[in-house]
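Researcher: Here's the sequence for the chain we discussed earlier.
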Amino acid sequence: MLLVILEHENGQLVEAAREALTFGRVLAEKMGEDLEAALIGSDDDDLVEAAGQYGAETVHMATHDLLTDYGPDAYGSVIAQMVESLDPDAVLSCGSDRGNEFMANAAARLDAPFVANCTDANPGDTWEMTRVQWGGSLLEDATLTADVPLLTCGLHAVAAEIGDEEDADAEEFDVDLDEAVTITMVKDRVVQEAGVTLPTAPVVVGGGRGVGSEDGFGQLEELAALLGGRVGCSRAVTNLGWRPHADQVGQTGTRIAPEIYIASGISG
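Model: Thanks. This is the structure I predict for it:
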């Protein structure tokens, strides 16, 4: 069985999770195994239904008071418990910041190797993988030998495509968590603006130090709104405090794949 750990937000699967299920369908077929999924911190029927639409036959739901807010240690602990209890042949998630973080945490708990940001994976006694390195400028061929391979698929490595749209079975998964895993403190909750997100925007208007000031981004916001896109920025801009880190694109920011990218005041 291939187990896909699903990332969700505001009661919906994030686009990267849908991509992971699409990637997982192909991988599960190569393995000759069933495709199953896991929801951590939610038992929402709509999420289960969405997972089924993308090919998951069973969805394992782990809920707990300590899973109300995301935390890498809590998620990593749950994934490790799922590996030990469900005995999957491999575990996959999306290569988002969160996905890579909690999969790395789980790998450390299991003392197992982990390969991030794969664009292709071929199972066998020794797995062969191609993965993205250096912010997308390099593709690396790698091999992996493990009892239970742990991997993430790179963002936009595949387009999210609905599968057979079958009804997935929902099963509760009992977890054992200690308060020691809740080292994350929620300082503030920010409601995401309506519309497209930066990773999925078809048009991104990027601004750098050359925009001149925080106010200078007003024109870029206007242009992005007219084109149905989002504003991104360089690391220099976030260092200056003009834009939040969530708007940063590039190797140390959000990986994007827009149809149109307009750069303003960015060198290089």
